Amino acid sequence: MENDINISLYMRRKFHMVATLLAVLSTFAKMADQNKERTFIMVKPDGVQRGLVGEIMKRFENRGYKLVACKMCTPTKAHLEEHYRDLKSKGFFAGLIEYMSSGPVVAMVWEGKEAVKMGRMMLGATNPLQSNPGTIRGDFCIDVGRNICHGSDSVESGKRESEHWFKDGEIQEWSPAQSKWVYE
C-alpha cells in the first residue's frame, strides 16, 4: 500500500510538472503569435511614380517589421473593386478605381507585433493635411486623392487583403536574424 501511495504521489508530481511546462510553452506560443500579426500595405500609383517605394519600405524595416510578401503589379479594375468593396457606395469609388488602375502599385505584407495599428500610425491620417510630420503621409503628401499608400484597418482586413493580393505560397515564413534584437 505504501508503494501505491508513493507511485500516486510520484504521478501527481509528474502531472503537475507536465502541466506547468505546457502552461509555460503556451505563454511563449502566445507571445510569438503576437509578433506574427500581419498587415497589408500598398504603395499606390502616385507613390510608385514619385519613387517613394524604398522610403516606405525602409520605414517599416527600420521599425523592426518583417516583410513576408512583396510584388509590383498593375491591378485590374475588377481586382480593385473587390479590394475596395466596402467603399462601393461612396461617390468617389469610380474615380478611385480608375486612378488605382492607372499604373503599377507595390503590394506588401508586413509582420510583427501590432503591425496593423502601428502600420496605420506610420502611414498617418487618410487626409495628409491631418497627418503629423514624421508619418509617411505627413512627410510626402498634400491631397487625400494622392496619399501614396493604403494600409489595412484591422487584423481581419489585413488577412483578407493579403489573401486577395497574394496566392498560396507567396507569403513567406522566415525568421530574420535580428528578431532577438527587436523582440524580448
Automatic annotation (TrEMBL):
Its EC number is 2.7.4.6. InterPro entries: NDK-like_dom (IPR034907), NDK-like_dom_sf (IPR036850), Nucleoside_diP_kinase (IPR001564), Nucleoside_diP_kinase_AS (IPR023005). Pfam families: NDK (PF00334). It catalyses: a 2'-deoxyribonucleoside 5'-diphosphate + ATP = a 2'-deoxyribonucleoside 5'-triphosphate + ADP. Keywords: ATP-binding, Kinase, Nucleotide-binding, Transferase. Residues 36-173 form the Nucleoside diphosphate kinase-like domain. Signal peptide: none annotated. Its cofactor is Mg(2+). ATP binds at residues 44, 92, 120, 126, 137, 147. The active site is at residue 150. Belongs to the NDK family. This is Nucleoside diphosphate kinase. It comes from Mya arenaria.
